[in-house]
Amino acid sequence: MEAQSFRILPAALAAAALSTLAACATPAVTGPVEVTRFVEPAASAQLGQGTIFVETAPGAQADSLALTPYKQAVARELARLGYREAPRADAAQVAQVRVERFVSGPDGQRRGPVSVGVGGSTGSYGSGVGLGLNINLGGGPRETIATRIGVMIRDKQSGTTYWEGRAQFSVSENSQYAEPAASAKAVAEALFRDFPGRNGETIEVKVPE
């Protein structure tokens, strides 16, 4: 029995080594973040200042822990822009966050969700405008993880939408941005770059490897 176990062990180690080498041979690939913003022209004086509360968008799982890194990343960007985060009761504006993550196959078809709370409908700006995920990551057929985030900044009292932004990107499963915290940071930074942006314009933001 001992002799047999010694014969099996090297084969198992060799298989593990080959698996590791195969994983290392496939480079991690990250697509650019595609960003679209919609701006209410009359709201320019209200954007980037005052108090704001970051919350889950209506229709999402309000207590979803998976949304936490994305809401935190959005809050950091809003603070950088000049907003002061406050409790909802004291905030003049609210930022509603919705997130969707899913696995996409080599053919571009959705394979299944990645566990993240999914937000509700879009706002009044650009309703029905979809962002494509046809990004060629290179390196041959592979499954990718797609992340979509949407943020709406609204006046809390009236519900008027001042600004809406959407961002999305796809990464290979071995990319550092497949992890929620890194993904959240990347899409939030891209979404709020050159805030508020041009109304209806779509840009691509390269993500550092």
UniProtKB/TrEMBL annotation:
Q: Name one Pfam family in it.
A: DUF4136
Q: Where is the signal peptide?
A: 1-25
Domain DUF4136, residue spans: 58-197
Keyword tags: Signal
> What is the protein name for this chain?
DUF4136 domain-containing protein
Q: What is the native source organism of this protein?
A: Pelagerythrobacter marensis
